[in-house]
Design brief:
single chain, alpha/beta, Maf protein, 24% strand
Length: 215
């Protein structure tokens, strides 16, 4: 079966796009980046108070601009000792245009005097799916528990992956996991598995409409 749905991912993060393409490869969907769909980048403010607000806002913005089904991921790191920070500001923890390395360094500084037993954290992911014919968002959630290491470890992944020691991984950071292991354990992998039934429902709706049109 060819692609039944083209979906635009409301993100300019190539790491997220690659991960989501791998996670959705068994479904008849084509996942496009915003530049592929529009021929240019699209600046979207991420000023919501929660991951859910940001995900829905991004999905709606891209859906309205492209006229295509849109999927938005808003995710981040919540550190217990920091009262849930960096949270929705995970990508901008060090400053507004921070690199991954700068954010990791800022996190280590913030936790410099925090003991080993107080470094618990979790990654959270919210996926919002919006269609041009119904702007009611369909949401899928995922979370992954762990703790923050004292120095970066591993060369895989992106963001805070080198500092996040995954619960149940044998003491390895997210950046030390293979792609298959990461997709199995990660917050994004879990959110995608929750999203799959919603996508299947949408695919079936499209197939039913196509059959009616052909008939």
């Amino acid at each position: 079966m060819g692609h039944v749905l083209s979906i635009v991912l409301a993100s300019h993060n190539p790491g997220k796009l690659a991960e989501l393409r791998a996670l959705l490869q068994d479904l008849p969907v084509q996942l496009l980046g915003v530049p592929e769909a529009l021929g240019q980048a699209l600046a979207i403010a991420e000023d919501g108070a929660t991951f859910e607000e940001n995900a829905v806002h991004k999905a709606l913005s891209v859906c309205r601009r492209t006229g295509l089904v849109s999927l938005a991921d808003d995710s981040g790191l919540e550190v217990d000792a920091l009262g849930g920070r960096p949270g929705v500001r995970s990508a901008r923890f060090a400053h507004e245009r921070a690199t991954d390395a700068e954010n990791n360094a800022a996190l280590l500084r913030a936790l410099e005097h925090v003991g080993e037993r107080q470094r618990s954290a979790s990654f959270r992911c919210v996926l919002a799916l919006v269609t041009p014919w119904s702007e009611t968002p369909r949401l899928a959630l995922g979370a992954c528990a762990g703790e923050i290491a004292r120095a970066p470890r591993g060369s895989g992944g992106f963001g805070y992956d080198p500092l996040f020691v995954v619960e149940g991984s044998g003491g390895r950071s997210m950046a030390e996991l293979g792609d298959g292991e990461k997709n199995e354990l990660s917050h994004r992998g879990r959110a995608v598995r929750a999203l799959v039934p919603l996508l299947v429902e949408l695919i079936n709706e499209r197939l039913d409409e196509a059959e009616k049109s052909a008939g």
